[in-house]
Amino acid sequence: MNDQYSSDKEAEQIARRLRQRQEMKRRKREQERRRRIIRKCIPLGFVTICILVLLGSGIGLLRESLKNKNKIQKAELEDSTIADVIQNMTPQPEEQTEESGGKKYAANSEKIYAAEETDSTTSFDGEILSEHAILIDTSTDTILAKRDAMSTMNPASMTKILTVLVAAENVEDLEDTFTVTTDITDYCYTNDCSAVGFADGETVTVKDLFYGTILPSGGDAALGLATYIAGSPEAFVDMMNEKLDQLGLSETAHFTNCIGVYDEAHYCTTYDMAMILRAAVDNELCREILSAHTYTTSSTAEHPDGITISNWFLRRIEDKDSGGTVLCGKTGYVVQSGNCAASYAEDSSGKGYICVTSKASSGWCCIYDHVAIYKKFMQ
C-alpha cells in the first residue's frame, strides 16, 4: 500500500496513522488487562478487592475512604496500577472522548444494551407490510410491539450504522485525510454498491467518510473509513464483531463486511439492529451523522464544489404524520432482505422510540410502515 504514496506528505500521513493504530492497540490491550484484573477480583467483594489492591503506599487512603461510607474519593496515588483499578471500579463506564472542531464525542463503548418483552408487548397486525419489525421504548428499554423480530435476516446497508459506531469510538481527528484507492472504487463497481462518487485517488476528510457512509449509503466511504481506522476492511470487520460481542449480540449477529453486501454469514435480527442503533444514538458523533438531512463534502481537486449528499429516508418521512419527529434513520436493500430501515423518533414530550423493519416490497412501503408504527404508538 505504501507504493501508492509518493510524496513526503503522504508518507507522513501513513506513519501517523500507523502510530495511531499502534496506540489504539496498546490502549485496547491495557483495557483488557484491567478488565481481567477486575473480573478476577470482583467475586472477593468490593471491600476485599480494595484492601488487596491498595496494600502498600495507598492503603491509608483507602481506609479513610471506606470510613466515609465506602466512597472512594479522588486522590493522587503514586501507584498508577492502583489508580487505574479504582477508576474501573466506579459506577460510570469508562469514556473515550474525541475532539474535533471544538466538539468532544463520547463513546459508551462498555455499555450493554437490552430491551425486554412485557405483558403489554403486542404483535403488529395488518397496519404494516414488512415481514420483520420491532418497536422499542428507549425510556423503559421495553419492546412495545414486534413481528418475527428474533429471526435472522441480512441487514443490508443498515450494517453501516455499526460501521460508523465502531469508527466513531476509534477516530482521533475528523479533519485528517484519506486517499481513495482503486481497490475501493473497483469493489464498489463490481458489487454494485451505492457510492458517494469519490474518484480514484481523491483525497477527502475523515468527516466526509463518516457522512458519506450514512447519507447516500456510500460503499466507497464505508470502505475508506474502515481502511483508515483499522488498516484494512478485514481488520475493521473484526472490530465490528468485537463490538457485537460487547453489545451482547454475538449469539444472533455476525458481520462479514462493513457495507452490507449479501453474504450468508452476514446476518442479525431486527432486535439486534435496534440495539445497534440504540448505541449509535447515544454516541454524539453518530447521532449527529444519522440525523443529518444533507451534507456537502469538502472541496477537492476532483470536486471543487464538493459533493452534496442526502439522507432520503429522513427527507421523505419528515413531512409525514408520524405522531412525533423522526430524528435519525438508515435504510438498506438487498434482494434477500428487501427494503429495510432503522430509525429513531421522539414524541412531543421527548420520549424516544427505535423502530426497525425488514422485508418490505419497496422503499416507500418501508417508509409508510415506520410512519404507521410511530403514529399508532406515539399518539
Can you tag this structure with a few keywords?
379 residues, alpha+beta, Beta-lactamase, 2 domains, 6-stranded mixed sheet, 13 helices, 41% helix, globular
What does the model show?
It is a single chain. By secondary structure, this protein is α+β, with helices and mostly antiparallel strands. It folds into two domains: 2-90, no CATH class; 116-378, Beta-lactamase (3-Layer(aba) Sandwich), CATH 3.40.710.10. It has 13 helices and twelve strands. The chain has helices spanning 8-41, 46-53, 59-67, 80-88, 159-168, 182-190, 206-214, 219-230, 233-246, 270-282, 284-290, 312-317, 363-378; strands at 96-100, 103-107, 116-123, 132-137, 142-147, 177-179, 203-205, 294-296, 308-310, 325-334, 338-346, 352-360. A six-stranded mixed beta sheet has the order 3-5-4-12-11-10, sandwiched between helices. A two-stranded antiparallel ribbon has the order 1-2. Strands 6-7 form a two-stranded antiparallel sheet. Helix 7 (206-214) packs across helix 8 (219-230).
